[in-house]
Amino acid sequence: MRQWIKDPLAILAPEAEGGVVIEDGRIAECVAAGQQPSQPVDSTFDASRHVVIPGLINTHHHFFQTLTRAHPAAINKELFPWLTALYPIWARNVTPETFRMGTRLALTELMMSGCTAASDHHYLFPAGLEDAIDIQVEEATRLGIRMTVTRGSMNLSQKDGGLPPDTVVQDEDTILADCERVLARYHDRSEGARIQVALAPCAPFTVTKRLMRESVALAERFDCRLHTHLGETIDEDDYCLHHFQCRPVDYLEECGWLNDRVWLAHGIHFNDDEVKRLGHACVGVCHCPTSNMTLASGQCRTKELEAAGCPVGLGVDGSASNDNSNLMESLRHALMLNRLTYDAASVTHHDTYRWATEGSARCLGREDIGAIKPGRQADLAFYTLDELRFSGAGDPLAALVLCGAHTADRVMIGGDWTVKDGRPVYIDIDRLRAEHGAAARRFLESF
After folding, report:
1. At residue 434, does pLDDT exceed 80?
2. Scanning 46, 146, 160, 243, which has its CA 20 to 30 A from the CA of 191?
3. DSSP readout, 189-201?
4. Are 321 and 291 in contact (CB under 8 A)?
5. Cα-flanking dihedrals φ and ψ of residue 19, to 5°?
6. Contact at 8 Å (CB) between 396 and 51?
7. Do the Cβ atoms of 168 and 154 come closer than 8 Å?
């Protein structure tokens, strides 16, 4: 079947003012203004009310944290005290059932904002949650969204001088065995893959050097990506200097992680030499502006990192350090924060679109998504400008970011509609809200 997405109000693609043709889940051709598709089509979708952009790609999140948004124990804190407050609550209440609800809601919320591919960094494994990655694969498949599931890990707890409670970490052998299991079962390296797997030791202060190095060996064996938190806070710098006698990037290099399989979450506190080294190694960085502002962590050096050669992507980060899972909102936050960091002329809405699409795709090691081009997967987000916030807007593409778009009217993933008229096709959001709210009450009652 060939479908023509015809005459959009605006589209984030060159020479495509007349729309795009979708065939077999891919973009078959871009249609110039006033032109017709080169071959007959089977159906036409009138996109004259819609601003069309590539599906947004979220490269860092913690889905289970939707269950502790704006939690009284954690608001108004920076990262380490925030973690210290929430770890015991998560340890007592994250079960397979609550984890499934947290994952389902985060994925749904992301997709409704225009996200077509997402990565979740799940590192919490209390007893009974050994099948966490399997649950996430099931939920992503049910919703129709692409997902890079990252098999996260922690093996340093409070008894070892770390932050997490002893009950949420696993030993190295258990972690590595399950990493191998989920890679063998779910990692799809083919073009258009719906599910891929990455390995993601949590952070330098929660994992051992052996686990970091063994993760590299597995990644090379299975040809997968590597992910971790790095350079998020000054406290992390101090921790690495005290425990490893080096800065976080030096530690990363010691562990064999300075290579192009790696993308990092946050990447804020890098000096000029570290930016150069990361760029030379083509290490990706996921910029998380909303979380960075919420926790007062600092400002990512996006422009310097890109100039050095680092792919820069965008992420919402955990829904307890962002308090929502709306990737479109994060584009606006990225624009505002980076203008504060640099200036108004050198950071534009086009930069934030690039980070959230092509840059994020590069972080995940994908060349088949992230742009509206012939041959790419037909992953598209459609927005209308009908709300009052858009009245008077002159540039439709700029308006989505500057005027604060939140919800996509339609979303297409691999040529299939997964959101229509602002609502997901495959899930009842009213029921989801009720079930998730009931699950989240456990996290408040135990406080």
Report:
1. yes
2. 46
3. -STT-SEEEEEEE
4. yes
5. 110, -165
6. yes
7. yes
Sequence-distant (≥ 6) Cβ neighbours of residue 56 within 8 angstroms: 113, 114, 115, 116, 314, 327, 328, 331, 356, 357, 360, 381
**Beta-strand relationship, 410-413 and 416-420:** antiparallel
| Token output for 306 | 């890109």
**pLDDT over 90 for what percent of the chain?**
96
pLDDT at residue 446, as a whole number = 67
Count the neighbouring beta carbons within 10 Å of the beta carbon of residue 243: 12
3-state secondary structure of 413: strand
Show the domains of the chain with their CATH numbers. Answer: 2-54+376-423 (2.30.40.10), 56-363 (3.20.20.140)
Residue appearing with tokens 């399997």: 134
Handedness of CA 124, 128, 131, 136 (dihedral sign): negative
| DSSP, res 24 | T
**Using only C-alpha atoms, what is the Rg of the chain?**
21
pLDDT in tens, 13-32: 999 999 999 999 999 999 99
Place of tokens 């080096």: 246
Dist CA 275 CA 280 (whole Å): 9
Pairing of strands 26-31, 19-23: antiparallel
* Residues β-bridged to residue 198: 150, 225
CB neighbour burial string for 375-388, b if at least 16 within 10 angstroms, e if fewer: ebbbbbbbbbbeee
What is the layout of strands, in order, in the sheet containing 380-384?
A: 10-11, 50-54, 380-384, 410-413, 416-420, 423-424
Alpha-carbon distance 39 to 21, whole Å? Answer: 10
Beta-bridge partners for 31: 19
Does residue 162 register a pLDDT over 90? no
pLDDT at 161: 82
Place of tokens 């100039």: 307
Q: How many CB atoms lie within 10 A of CB 436?
A: 22
C-alpha 424/C-alpha 328 separation (Å) is: 16
What is the enclosing helix (H) or strand (E) of 202?
none
